[in-house]
Amino acid sequence: MTPYQNILIVEDLADVADWLYRVCADCFEGADIRTANSISSAKSSINDWVPQLALLDIGLPDGSGIGIMDDIFAVNPSCQCVITTIFDDSNHLFDALKAGATGYLLKDETEAVFTTRLKGILEGQPPLSPSIARRMLSFFQPQKTAPETDITPREKEVLTLIAHGYSVRGTAESLSLSHHTVASYVKDIYRKLQINSRAEATLKAMELGLISRNE
Predict the structure, then answer these.
(1) DSSP β-bridge partners for residue 81
(2) Is residue 179 exposed (0-12), middle (13-18) or buried (19+ Cβ within 10 Å)?
(3) What is the pLDDT along the chain (215 residues), one digit of tens a residue?
(4) Do 152 and 82 have their domain in common?
(5) Is 144 helix (H, G, I), strand (E, B) or coil?
(6) CA distances, 113 to each of 23, 99, 128, 145 (Å)
(7) What CATH number does residue 91 fall under?
(8) Distance CA 172, CA 115 (A)
(9) Closest Cα partner for 29 from 2, 59, 65?
(10) Number of structural domains, the chain?
(11) Is the pTM here over 0.85, yes or no?
(12) Domain of 62?
């Protein structure tokens, strides 16, 4: 039997909650899985029931799932709290870790990746989405100076269009390039600039003067 006999899922979107329920049922056979769609309902659940594992969304109707961890730890200090969210930025990540989260999984991962990462907790592996693990590693690595000096003129063109909201396919059409060529450019740009999202690409384009802050 799984060591995580009681699992709490805090998620306000019904279809996502059902998906997380199914994933947990597959990963932790025989577990008692309960769902809550708000912080208040989650607090009610733990009044007479102690979870060993909690999957917590951040954007809930009555606050952030990060905030309920103190209540969970009050009834079970050893509970494993895993954030399940769409937010991949450093602020949410490190706020969650500071509050005591032991994992951070992005809900837009493929089900196979999400399931594998979550199930790894049974072997003592922290459940982290691959991009989140890379972000954590990069935070502690020395920052390279002026990475933009490696960006080629063509890559600057691609970065500019991406920052303006163009999709990879739209960028390819605008520059008369193939979709796969632009995808390769984007991959290289992200690697060179040490970024992981479109939002970070937009900020970097501003820093490089490729777009203005008013655009």
Answers:
(1) 54
(2) middle
(3) 678 999 999 999 999 999 999 999 999 999 999 999 999 999 999 999 999 999 999 989 999 999 999 999 999 999 999 999 998 888 899 999 999 999 999 998 889 999 999 999 999 999 999 889 887 877 766 555 444 557 888 999 999 999 888 999 999 999 999 888 898 899 889 888 888 888 888 888 888 888 875 55
(4) no
(5) coil
(6) 11, 25, 10, 33
(7) 3.40.50.2300
(8) 34
(9) 2
(10) 2
(11) no
(12) 6-140
Amino acid at 48: D
Q: Please report which helix (H) or strand (E) contains residue 27, including its range.
A: helix 14-27
Token pair belonging to 58? 């951040």
Helix (H) or strand (E) holding 104: strand 103-106
Pairing of strands 53-56, 59-60: unpaired
Residue 60: both structure tokens together: 């809930």
Which tokens sit at 213?
A: 């802050």
Do 159 and 119 belong to one domain? Answer: no
Smallest CA-to-CA distance from 31 within 11, 12, 8 is with 8
Q: Do residues 107 and 16 lie in contact, with contact meaning Cβ atoms separated by under 8 Å?
A: yes
- The one-letter code for the residue type at 21 is Y
**Beta strands 103-106; 80-85: pairing state:** parallel
> What is the amino acid identity at position 198?
R
C-alpha triplet 207, 143, 209: angle, nearest 5°? 10
What is the C-alpha separation between 88 and 29, in angstroms, rounded?
29
CB 38 within 8 A of CB 61: yes
